[in-house]
Amino acid sequence: MTLLLLSWLWTAPALAKNAWDPVSDVRPGSLESLARDLDSPDVSRRGFAIRELNRVARLSRKAEFGNLEDTRTSDALANLDFLDEAIAPICIRHVSRDIEVVRCANLLARLETAAARPVLVDARNRVDSNRVKKRISKAISTLDKAAEEQ
Fold this sequence. Notes:
The chain has about 150 residues and is an all-alpha fold. The chain has helices spanning about 1-15, 30-40, 45-65, 70-95, 100-110, 115-125, 130-150.
């Protein structure tokens, strides 16, 4: 019995989950991991991911028109390119399924994703909340303004 207890005490810490394990990281470190979390069925991971992606998009839009030799500008352009190619389709799919509608609408408007307009209009027609309708309408008007400027 003592031998069993001692062996368990010896091996239990080795079997325990490492707190510094990247899988248990509370703040994902890359846009790819945020994309995986946005597509996750876990509501809290999805919520964190869309908040972070909106923050990245906001900061990248501020830095995108800088000097092309500046690393901040090139990072911003790379981030926006990734958001356009990988995140926008996920957000369009989420809005069509009534998942993270307001935050995805904000991101799609910030990215000026023209393909999202019909999905946002449909979502606005399905929603009962006036507050959510107003936020979606604001995203649609942003997309309309971006389309006029081109």
